[in-house]
Amino acid sequence: MSSVDDPYADLKATLTIPRNPLTVIASPLAWRSVLYCATSVVFGWFGLLVGVLGFVAFPWVSEATQQIERRRVMMLGLEELVDLDRTPPSWQGMLRGRNHRSLGAWASAVAFAVLDTVPGIGLSVAIIAGATGIRAAFTSGGLSIELGFSLLWTYLWLTIGLYVAWALAAVQAYTISAVLRPDPTLDRQVAQLTSSRSELVDLFEAERRRIERDLHDGAQQHLVVSTMRLGEAVYWLDKADPQGAREAVVQAQSSVEDALAALRDTIHGIHPQVLSDRGLLAAVEELAARQPVPTTFLLVGTAVPLPPQLESAAYYVATEGLTNVSRHSRATKATVRLEYGQQRLLVQIIDNGAGGAQLVAGHGVSGLAERTHTAGGTFELSSPIGGPTVVSVAFPYDQPL
Description:
Layout: H1 9-14, H2 28-53, H3 58-72, H4 91-95, H5 100-140, H6 145-180, H7 184-238, H8 242-270, H9 273-278, H10 280-289, E1 295-300, H11 308-329, E2 334-341, E3 344-351, H12 366-374, E4 378-382, E5 389-396
Parallel strand pairs: 1-2
Antiparallel strand pairs: 2-3, 3-5, 4-5
Helix pairs in contact: 2-3, 2-5, 2-6, 3-5, 5-6, 7-8, 7-12, 10-11, 11-12
């Protein structure tokens, strides 16, 4: 597993200690762990004392503790933890949860100070007792059973102490890393959310421009024509020519009907009524039947009601995908396929056109990809030169089938 997949891979690699108790005493990591635990006791109790007595300045105390803990892991051979929290310490920020890393670092330091103190005192007493026995044996002169026992006692408790110090140091390093280092998964989600938000704004703007263009090129043109025809009718009435006025009114009526049809098409492109009334299956089936390129509709699995926003996104994919087929693919036939799988809806648009479609920002299928990612789906494109082109979009959903 790579360090990208496992954020603690570097800790696992660095904090590996010899398992042989006969060699652990020569391990630099073991002695660094002792130093780390000793400083944990000092800084932890000091942080608790200052935090309690100087409660008014607690946000600044916790921030100082955070900065110390970020650097103190270097005692174990780890890299300094990067400080990504640029929020200045303050009571307002802490009460609003902005300084949660500082608070977590302070709480962790205090907890491990207490945790390290108890075994530290016990092990120190045992080791000092063994050292005292060795000194007494040498003072009495000569080698004796007492000296051998004291040496064995000291080595045994020293070895146990090194392992305990290593375990405590490793646990604290893992804890402080979890508190202070950024979560790669969360960072990726935040980056995706930021990107999706930007894409969503672009999509809204593109949709606004499309509606504006459709209104200008469609309904507005027909209404202008109808206004001109009504003006002609007034002219013929002034000339006492009812037949000419009648023809002008009939033409104006035809232009108004064309404008209404254009408005219906524009509204249908925003959100078709059939999608609200009869659901995604009927809407996509009707969409396939209205295409200029002969289009087959296929359903795989059993259709189930889905959240409105998911059905809307899936319909958009089908609409834009088939529009791309009719405009760019030079295809003679196409297929739109809906597959209801295990908590996943798969939408596929397949055509026998020339192929060679590519994801180019602002063109063609790139809008489909952006809309898909914004809705939480996955997008795949297969379009070899000569075809066929297959656009596959999968939307996860929570409702079990």
